[in-house]
Amino acid sequence: MTAADHPSAPIPPARDPQVAARLEKAVEMARRAGRVTLEHFRRDDLAVERKADNSPVTVADRSAERLMRELIAEWFPHDAIVGEELGEQSGASGFRWILDPIDGTKSFICGVPLYSTLIGVERDGQSVLGVIHIPALDECVYAARGGGAFYSQGGAAPRPARVSNRPLAAGLFATSQVDSFAKRGALAAFERLQAAAYVTRTWGDGYGYLLVATGRAEAMVDPIMNVWDAAALLPVLEEAGGAFTDWNGVATIHGGEGVAANPASLADVLAITRAFSRPS
């Protein structure tokens, strides 16, 4: 039995009963979908396809998202869903699930254990909960609005997740892929962030945001994001005492970009990214 097979520890409740019910199921769903990805992880016969935008996709991505959709249909049949791999379906409840079965598919394909399963939920257009689960490490951080953020690993009981209080000059700046700054025409932003930080690493995608939420990194910046990359992050970072914003400092999952930081680093990061931000 692996750590990922342990039953999940009790989930501290959110204040709103409808949100609390979805948070509990979202954590369970992330773990179950993560186990699906592990069935394919580091297999020699893993086939990789290319989507229309030339990004990679595997059977693990599609199988994990299919499972998540089946569980949502069982548990919350009137909720809407949008996912990276299988599109959008409407709902009537006011809740919308936003799914990324494997955030960091390139890492997954290369056998690097730092990919994540991301689940976000909106209620009437507002982010209300998020889950970042790292299947191969069995680390999970999750949060609901007003209920705090929590971190668990393996079968251990969850404990509060908090950002650090270190400034960027004494801390870690992370990103997903350096060439994404160049694709945006903002390579100088990466260079300035790297110069401002004590150390820079590309332990990116959802894992980098988990590091910020649990106080192991001070800032994470992505120049290009989809909504399924961002949806889980805003509730988690805010409930952990930090921030998730666009490059202008607006708290949103729909900005097509991302900044996560603790309060001691946020102003320094935004001073750099705002110089390269898109018009509002």
Topology, please?
Elements: H1 17-38, E1 48-50, E2 56-58, H2 59-75, E3 80-83, E4 87-89, E5 95-103, H3 105-109, E6 116-123, E7 126-134, E8 139-144, E9 149-153, E10 159-160, E11 172-174, H4 179-184, H5 187-196, E12 199-201, H6 205-213, E13 219-222, H7 227-230, H8 233-239, E14 243-245, E15 258-261, H9 263-273
Parallel strand pairs: 3-5, 11-12, 11-13
Antiparallel strand pairs: 1-2, 3-4, 5-6, 6-7, 7-8, 8-9, 9-10, 13-15, 14-15
Helix pairs in contact: 1-2, 5-9
* Envelope shape: globular
Strand order of the largest sheet: 4-3-5-6-7-8-9-10
What is the rounded Rg? 17 Å
Secondary structure tally, helices: 9
Average predicted confidence as pLDDT: 93
Instruction: Kindly give the count of domains.
Output: 2
Q: Using the coordinates above, name the CATH class of the largest domain.
A: Alpha Beta
Strand content: 15-25%
How is the main sheet built? 8 strands, mixed
Number of strands: 15
Rounded to the nearest angstrom, the distance between the terminal CA atoms is: 50 Å
CATH topology title of the largest domain: Fructose-1,6-Bisphosphatase, Chain A, domain 1
Order of H and E elements: HEEHEEEHEEEEEEHHEHEHHEEH
Structural class: alpha+beta
The CATH homologous superfamily of the largest domain is called: Fructose-1,6-Bisphosphatase, subunit A, domain 1
Fraction of residues in helix: 25-40%
At CATH level 2, the architecture of the largest domain is: 2-Layer Sandwich
Taking pLDDT < 50 over at least 5 consecutive residues as the criterion, the unreliable ranges are: 1-8
